[in-house]
Amino acid sequence: MLLRVLVSAALIFRAECYFAEEKFPEESKMQPPTVVIAIIARNAAHSVPYYLGALERLNYPKDRISVWAATDHNSDNTTAMLREWLTVMQRFYHYVEWRPMEQPT
């Protein structure tokens, strides 16, 4: 009889959670780690808006994202597009580093 009760209790407990981690209390409310996203673009004016839009829609706290952006030797509007976006959005991100190079050194 006792064995049946223990087995049924074990099955009921097992049925309540699918993964072993679900048995434990919720994780601590620590901040997620700061991540760095590098944007390296050259003559990419046709795709920069899509890339930046995807970056804005990331499901991650923006104050935990650092952005490092570099561009050089563009013959299109890539530099101006990145500069404008970074100027507007830098206040939302943890840190923004802008490295443009107009003329080769």
TrEMBL record:
UniProt xrefs under InterPro entries: Collagen_mod_GT25 (IPR050757), Nucleotide-diphossugar_trans (IPR029044)
Superkingdom classification of source: Eukaryota
Keyword Signal (UniProt): yes
Position of the signal peptide: 1-17
Xref: SUPFAM superfamilies: Nucleotide-diphospho-sugar transferases (SSF53448)
Swiss-Prot/TrEMBL keywords: Glycosyltransferase, Signal, Transferase
One term of GO molecular function: glycosyltransferase activity
Database matches in PANTHER family: INACTIVE GLYCOSYLTRANSFERASE 25 FAMILY MEMBER 3 (PTHR10730:SF9), PROCOLLAGEN-LYSINE,2-OXOGLUTARATE 5-DIOXYGENASE/GLYCOSYLTRANSFERASE 25 FAMILY MEMBER (PTHR10730)
Protein name (Swiss-Prot/TrEMBL): Procollagen galactosyltransferase 1
